[in-house]
Amino acid sequence: MTSRWHNALSLALILAILLFILAPILVLIFSAFDGGNIFRFPPRAYSLRWFEEAFNHPEYKSSLWISTLLGVISTVLSVSLASLAAFGLVRGKPAYRLVMEVLLLAPLTLPLVVWAIALLSIYAQLGINGTLPGLILAHVTITIPFAARIMIATFDEIDPRLEAAAKSLGASPLRVLQRITLPLAMPGLLSSTAIAFLVSFNDVVVTTLIAGAGWITFPVRTFSRLRTEGIDPTTIAIGAMIVAFTIGLVVVGQRLFQLTRRF
User: Fold this and answer.
1) What are the tens digits of pLDDT across the range 155-195?
2) Sign of CA dihedral 40, 41, 46, 49
3) Which pTM does this prediction carry?
């Protein structure tokens, strides 16, 4: 009996903590379906009106395209560079591996605003502040640590004897990479790609300081509208869609590729 009460109490405590954490998200999602002209919870009448308004808003559509373009380019670059660095550190086993790992993960140790100010100072001297290349480099800087962490763990799990066996059978290094290394590393590559894209797409701090007036991303546009016009139903609907997209991507990554374990 004591054990059953203990289990029930533990379950109730876990559910209470989860409810406390998820309450703001639940309020956001339910409020997005309200048909009224102002933010209110609980909803009085359910409607998809504000989702339609969000999709038809020209400024949001433009910023969504910029965020997608920026996220794709920066993700490809960061995952490629992180994979090369991780492969060299794991397979090469250099004496300075620990130092290099610390340097790769360094952006995670400081607040993003510190990196944004530092990048802003460098970009001002290089003359690339407010440009797309500068914004891409900034996003690569903040996404590489996430990709590198996942890829280092991925390559650590791949048995190097499989690659050695393929080489002993006459396979070229390129063939080994195509038939052995990449297929085994694919779950890690997909997981790091998902994480890097989400970090890039959702960034506000770095993008706000680095981006110019012509490269306003989706989160920055949403945040700016919140500051100038307050909370409006269109912004709430957009927030609900971002939350749903992020949760869906994380769930798929966890189910298929054990994303959290690799991260």
Assistant:
1) 888 777 777 787 777 777 778 777 877 788 888 888 888 88
2) positive
3) 0.75
